[in-house]
Amino acid sequence: MQNTSIQNGELVIISGVKKYLKWNILKSLRVRIILLVILVGIVPAFVLRGVVLSSYEKREVAMRTAEIQNQCTILCNQLSDANYLTGETSEVLRSELVQMSNIYSGRVMVIDHDFRIQEDTYDMDKGKTIVSEDVIRCFQGKGTSNYDAKNRYIEVTSPILDKGAEKSVGVMLISVSTDMIVDSVHELDERILIVCLTIGIVAVILAFSAGFVMVRPFQRISRSIAAVTEGYDADYLHEQTYTETMLISDAFNKMLGRMKVLDDSRNEFVSNVSHELKTPLTSMKVLADSLLIQKDVPAELYKEFMGDLSEEIERENKIINDLLSLVKMDKTANTLNIKSENMNVLIEKILKRLRPIAATRNIELVLESFRPVTAEIDEMKMSLALTNLVENAIKYNKDDGWVHVSLNADHKNCYIEVADSGIGIPEGAIEHVFERFYRVDKSHSREIGGTGLGLAIARSAVVMHRGAVRVYSQVDAGTTFTVRIPLTYVS
């Protein structure tokens, strides 16, 4: 029993492997090209073979039928002139009937108006009665012709007219074998078959050649992509054989460039994180070492050093919290808690929380709502983004300045604008302000507690909502951030 189970298991595994290999072979582009070229070469050849043979057979039968009908017409006229059915039997005409029968390897019968067979070149049914549809139609003055492919014969009827009354007094019926035509068709078929087989062999050779040659550029692309694991090279792939390979090369090079940018950005980010986290730690170590090396430290100095340590710890904590916010956004990018929110109320809450901070520097915080706006958003993430924008506008402002927040919408999007009368951003720095840890004025940012992550967090949250954020600024003339998000979130 155990051996049987093992054998059955092996059979199942072998069957599965065969199916897998078969499926993968059929998925191969090379195999599909080979099969396509073979089909394109062989199928039309065999279709053409059938058409040629059928046309040839029909043509030969039509020519033989027309020839027999002409001979029948001539003999019928002679029989009519000689009153063959009403007068004496003419041996000359009979010999002509026999001669016609011998020439076409067929049988000739002459039938009178009583449907009695008066003459039969086979001498089998002479004197017997024959009634058939073709004979009846022929007595009505309409000659007939039929081809029986199964039994290989052509049957033709032709009326014998009374010369004076112009009516049918008899019928000539001739049955002719088509063995010669069939033999000719078979001979032609053999020749065509040889041609088809030759075409088939050529098609197979061309198919395999085309399969290997046409797939070769894609193999080079595959090797080039595999080589990426060894390192990045600028414009690594250059395959110009086909339009498709050119498009793949361009797309791959763009992807590779993007990967290099991301890799450089990741390295820079790690470097910046290390630097930003190390700086407060260094300051704390210096302060702690200063306390340790001194003896009998006065209480006032001790409190001052502890206050500095507390500030550095708070700064470290803020950097870590901002980093955690970015990581959390990256992880939950596809799991937004989308709900329909009143944007007017949401912005009012944000400004209410930030007004005490603005009041410390006598900065006027104003909201202008042009209309009630409701949008489908993740309230927590959008609040974080807008809070960072408004908080930055307050931090990098001038004393006694202003921050103007406006809310508007059209049929499709919600528009939020945060403008301030602050210090502004140099033109060369505008394109970098959304980068992580980028700060226009590092010394000033440290003084006000900036980490360089606020705008990166804001942009990430807006992009997650399928929106966009832009910045316009002039040095000493203020900065304006515009946010556009769809009213209806589309996943």
SSE layout:
Layout: H1 2-27, H2 29-81, H3 91-103, E1 106-112, E2 117-120, H4 133-139, E3 144-148, E4 153-161, E5 168-177, H5 179-227, H6 243-293, H7 299-331, E6 338-342, H8 343-359, E7 364-369, E8 374-378, H9 379-395, E9 402-409, E10 413-420, H10 442-447, H11 454-464, E11 468-474, E12 478-486
Parallel strand pairs: 7-9
Antiparallel strand pairs: 1-2, 1-5, 3-4, 4-5, 6-8, 9-10, 10-12, 11-12
Helix pairs in contact: 2-3, 2-5, 6-7, 7-11, 8-9, 9-11
Folded structure, characterized:
The chain is an alpha+beta fold and 491 residues long. The chain folds into four domains: 2-52 and 185-222, no CATH class; 82-184, Beta-Lactamase, CATH 3.30.450; 231-330, Signal transduction histidine kinase, dimerisation/phosphotransfer (DHp) domain (Helix Hairpins, Orthogonal Bundle); 332-486, 2-Layer Sandwich (Heat Shock Protein 90), CATH 3.30.565. Helix content is 58%, strand content 17%. It has helices spanning 2-27, 29-81, 91-103, 133-139, 179-227, 243-293, 299-331, 343-359, 379-395, 442-447, 454-464, and strands at 106-112, 117-120, 144-148, 153-161, 168-177, 338-342, 364-369, 374-378, 402-409, 413-420, 468-474, 478-486. The strands form three sheets. The chain has a five-stranded antiparallel beta sheet, with helices on both faces. It has a five-stranded mixed beta sheet with strand order 7-9-10-12-11, with helices on one face. A hairpin with a 6-residue loop joins β4 and β5 (168-177). α2 packs antiparallel against α3 (91-103). The longest helix is centred in the N-terminal third of the chain and has 53 residues, at 29-81. The two termini are 56 Å apart. The relative contact order is 0.06. The mean pLDDT is 79.
